[in-house]
Design goal:
This protein has 396 residues and is α/β, with parallel strands linked by helices. Helices cover 35% and strands 26% of the residues. The protein has a domain of 212 residues: FAD/NAD(P)-binding domain, CATH 3.50.50.60.
Length: 396
């Protein structure tokens, strides 16, 4: 069975590694010329970490990632604590795996090593830009820039927000959400107030919010600051530090210090697909942002791609495997996206009665409220013994 995966981001590499665990090899095509060497942070909650441990990444994650002790929500102006959700040891005890934060590039390199160890060198082919595909009763032909082609029995599109594979099964387009973000990695040594146990901190304010969290052994924290925007920035651009500082004028001094300590800022728009009608057709399926791009307000974009990838791999060889994948995943993703929409509505409330009521409700939240999200596991049919302690492929 010839399976082609388009895109070597987190979703594409987890797809390849999960297929290998099911005894199926594939080829991964990535338009970039090589593995990523820049990028910000990423949060992997226990529902995604459980899949990564199953792939043998537990030792590598423990070495490279941070395990935040808590998620703290704070007021924008005075920094007052609104709510604190315990993570750390409590999350690991409750869900069996930790909540991780790390650099996206570190996670990508771990996954690339796993794929190459299990499927062989050359499984991931860089510099291969898919420009279209054609399905027939006998298979799918992928067409690449430069005129090359590849024939596959099944194609998985993990090629992100502006997916070429998705265009073969649906004509919709992502929508701009009216917000843009600034991202940067900031040396933690410049911010003495970050001393103490690692944590994810979110400052909530009118119309915008700011997030920071540690990214493992790198000695840096990831900064994400949102701003309202009338139109989307043109792709990924260099951020204007002065404009960002102006947007956060009057916020708590810790936020100002965080923004001032940032070096190179990356600026881009936030997009989503509010109504995703189809994730597969015939021999073609999509995962992650190519299927259901969601706003990052619940930190679930990458983790839902991980869940997609593991589920699709479990059923890929069955005659109705892609339909079963979608049937299993759609109710789950619909619930996650509904939660994201609710958070997006209440996260940026102006100061006033609604904001105070929101804060009272947030103060009552507990880790157990996330059981529906963090407690997800693969369908029983596809569970195998964890390979967490046999991680030679990721430590070689």
């Amino acid at each position: 069975m010839r399976i082609a995966v388009v895109g070597a981001g987190v979703g594409g590499l987890v797809t390849a590694a999960s297929l290998a665990l099911e005894g199926v090899r594939c080829v991964v095509f990535e338009r970039a010329g090589g593995p990523p060497d820049v990028g910000g942070g990423i949060q992997i909650s226990p529902n995604g970490a459980r899949v990564l441990h199953r792939l043998g990444l537990g030792p590598a994650l423990r070495a490279a990632a941070a395990r935040p002790a808590a998620l703290e929500l704070r007021r924008w102006q005075d920094g007052r604590l609104i709510a604190r959700t315990e993570l750390g040891a409590e999350a690991e005890k409750r869900y069996g795996v930790p909540y991780y934060t790390l650099r996206r590039t570190d996670l990508s390199r771990m996954l690339l090593r796993v794929v190459e160890a299990r499927c062989g060198a050359g499984t991931v082919q860089f510099g291969r830009q898919c420009v279209g595909l054609d399905e027939s009763p006998h298979g799918v032909r992928l067409r690449f820039a430069g005129g090359q082609a590849y024939d596959a029995d099944l194609v998985v599109g993990a090629d992100g927000l502006h997916s070429v594979v998705r265009r073969a099964i649906a004509g919709d387009a992502p929508r701009f959400a009216g917000h843009a973000v600034y991202r940067a990695l900031v040396p933690a040594a410049r911010l003495p107030w970050l001393s103490g146990p690692p944590r994810v901190t979110v400052w909530l304010g009118p119309g915008q919010h700011c997030v920071c969290y540690p990214v493992g052994a790198s000695g840096a924290v990831n900064l994400v600051a949102t701003v309202e925007a009338g139109q989307a920035p043109d792709g990924y651009t260099r951020g204007d530090a002065r404009g960002l500082a102006d947007a956060y004028q009057g916020w708590h001094p810790n936020v100002g210090a965080l923004l001032a300590a940032a070096g190179q800022l990356v600026h881009h728009g936030l997009f989503h697909r509010p109504s995703t009608r189809v994730w597969h057709r015939g021999r073609i399926a999509v995962v992650g942002d190519a299927a259901h791009a969601m706003l990052p307000f619940l930190a679930q974009g990458a983790t839902q791609a991980i869940e997609d990838a593991a589920t699709l791999a479990a059923y890929a060889r069955e005659p109705d495997g892609l339909a079963r994948y979608e049937a299993l995943r759609r109710p789950r993703v619909d619930r996650v996206m509904a939660a994201v929409r609710e958070i997006a509505t209440r996260m940026h409330l102006p100061d006033g009665p609604r904001q105070r009521e929101r804060d009272r409700r947030l103060a009552a939240t507990r880790l157990s409220d996330q059981d529906w999200l963090y407690g997800w596991e693969l369908p029983p049919r596809s569970r195998r013994e964890p390979s967490d302690d046999s991680g030679a492929e990721v430590r070689r």
